[in-house]
Write a structure and sequence with these properties.
Structural class: mainly alpha
Number of domains: 1
CATH topology: Four Helix Bundle (Hemerythrin (Met), subunit A)
Number of helices: 5
Length: 164
């Protein structure tokens, strides 16, 4: 990509969790931008999603989690559905999108999410969040789990070249 985007650091971030969230997203972004574009259409493992589809999945995850984070922070709790990952990937057609477009979308979607996390007061991190049929967890857990999920998929994206 022509321009390297970094999540703004000049904002007043009120919690350690928000600082960690922003720092982790910056690290993930740097790794995504460093990936050779020729790997974008290559599955990370035989029968697995391509790197494009994984980035698309991370976009879907960010979209769904933004709803969860905002509703838990503003309403004091969240109860809502899970989503069908494969159906969402197919519905968005991520496999057919240019790699640079997907990376720009990832940057924007995650900047929005970081701005949301920046503004969540510490007292709201204990809000209950029930996703699908899973047992309720705290908003803090949901945010930390989102980062773990991003890092886990980053390992797939940066795994060696696999022939399909």
């Amino acid at each position: 990509m022509d321009t390297v985007f970094a999540f703004p650091t000049g904002r007043i971030v009120t919690t350690q969790l928000a600082q960690t969230f922003r720092a982790d997203l910056n690290s993930i972004l740097a790794a995504l931008l460093a990936l050779p574009p020729e790997l974008a259409d290559v599955p990370w493992r035989v029968g697995g999603w391509t790197r494009k589809q994984i980035v698309g999945h991370l976009l879907d995850s960010a979209t769904n989690n933004r709803q969860r984070f905002v509703r838990a922070a503003t309403d004091g709790a969240f109860t809502g559905p899970n989503y069908g990952q494969d159906a969402w990937i197919a519905a968005h057609g991520y496999a057919g999108q240019p790699w640079t477009t997907l990376l720009r979308w990832w940057q924007v979607e995650h900047e929005i999410l970081a701005a949301v996390v920046d503004l969540i007061p510490e007292k709201r991190f204990h809000a209950s969040c029930a996703v699908g049929a899973d047992e309720p967890v705290t908003l803090r857990f949901l945010i930390e789990d989102f980062l773990a999920h991003q890092r886990w998929h980053l390992k797939q994206i940066t795994a060696g070249n696999v022939e399909s």
